[in-house]
Design a protein that fits this description.
16 strands, 2 domains, six-stranded mixed sheet, 377 residues, Purple Acid Phosphatase, chain A, domain 2, 23% strand, alpha/beta, 31% helix
């Protein structure tokens, strides 16, 4: 029985804009740390080889230092590591894989798959790749890779590919779609025994076929991903390969909804944020709704500012933010203002009643006014 690790979409060099300046270098380092964790899993599982199904790098234009650090991380593998160029790092004229920073620092056990020539990786096992030659390849690259292959007794093959399978595509998508029918034919006829895919960042099988799978990204990149943050351990058993998911990543992307209608709700909201584990590696998106007084609203935004400093990222969705600010006379009176200051506060409160940009500015002004008054008290 042959065991190997299927991984993809490392996106080394990725620096998401939604992270704070403090969090970005930690996130980049954790993506490299995930590479070393994959190497440990490969060793612990007794894997014969490792395949990366595209997008090791976030682009062909990552800086030299990032490439050198990535190559150093690749040194953690003690088995053959096969890298497939994907749509983010294709084999074009500026390919990162032909740069001196990569070539001069990459260990000998690392193989960049540059064409569809079968590669012997273990006794009786070959890997056949469908690398991206450019950002816009013509046609189905997997069909081209499979064209001249035939089933051979005693030989197992892994097809290594990157892209969107046509059964997942929407009508407007085109380009180098992967044909599911061709994959199923190759599997049924014994030409290949497993299809290792990259591109989707969620780990899952495709079209209900357990031998056609996306590995997902080893470190999550966005909220809508499912079963991201791991790798697949694949055993080439007959008639169907056996697949297990193992966790690698540390970062979590969390989305939560809160309805707020009182000061007690705001304090409960703060307490719940305080209970979130591993805040430094959590990207939290909040959907907020409800109705609060000026003071309660000011406290809510104070909580958000304080908690934002400890999370990897904390954002409030503009699309789903629906917290109304109640600006009654009693609430303004509680500020203790008089004369021109009270008149100004009343004008601002009147302007805050609405949904347009002026109303949002007015609500910001009310929060600031409340905090200034509270600070002076």
């Amino acid at each position: 029985m042959t065991t190997f690790i299927h991984t993809a979409d490392w996106h080394l060099g990725l620096s998401p804009r939604f992270l704070s300046e403090d969090a970005r270098p930690r996130y980049a380092e954790d993506r490299r740390r995930a590479v070393r964790a994959i190497a440990r899993i490969a060793h612990d599982e007794g894997a014969h080889f490792v395949v990366v199904a595209g997008d090791v790098f976030d682009s062909n234009h990552v800086d030299r230092a990032e490439v050198a650090r990535a190559a150093d991380a690749l040194g953690a593998f003690d088995v053959p590591l096969l890298i497939l160029p994907g749509n983010h790092d294709p084999l074009d004229a500026g390919s990162v894989y032909t740069s001196r920073a990569f070539v001069d620092n990459t260990p000998d056990n690392v193989v960049v798959v540059t064409d569809s020539t079968p590669i012997d990786v273990a006794p009786g096992v070959q890997v056949v790749g469908a690398p991206w030659p450019s950002l816009r390849p013509a046609g189905d690259l997997t069909a081209q890779a499979l064209r001249d292959l035939h089933a051979l007794p005693g030989l197992s093959r892994v097809l290594l590919a990157h892209g969107i399978v046509d059964v997942d595509a929407i009508a407007t998508e085109g380009g180098a779609l992967i044909g599911m029918a061709g994959l199923e034919t190759a599997l049924r006829e014994g030409v290949v025994q497993y299809v290792a895919l990259g591109d989707h960042h969620s780990a899952r099988e495709v079209g209900g076929n357990p031998a056609v799978r996306y590995a997902g990204t080893p470190e999550a990149t966005r909220h809508r991903e499912q079963d991201a943050g791991g790798v697949l351990v694949v055993s080439l058993e007959s008639p169907v390969p056996q697949v297990r998911w193992r966790q690698v990543g540390q970062w979590q992307f969390v989305r939560r909804q809160f309805a707020l209608s009182s000061g007690d709700d705001v304090e409960a909201f703060d307490a719940e944020l305080a209970q979130v584990a591993d805040k430094e590696t959590t990207v939290l998106r909040l959907d907020l709704s409800g109705a609060l007084t000026v003071g309660e609203d000011a406290r809510l935004h104070e909580v958000l500012e304080l908690r934002r400093d400890v999370f990897g990222s904390l954002t409030v969705s503009d699309r789903t933010y629906d917290v109304a600010v109640i600006t009654g006379e009693d609430d303004l009176a509680a500020l203790g203002l008089s004369g021109y200051a009270l008149d100004a506060a009343q004008e601002i409160a009147a302007a805050a009643d609405g949904d347009g940009p002026d109303a949002r500015v007015a609500r910001d002004a009310l929060r600031l006014l409340h905090r200034l008054v509270q600070g002076a008290a």
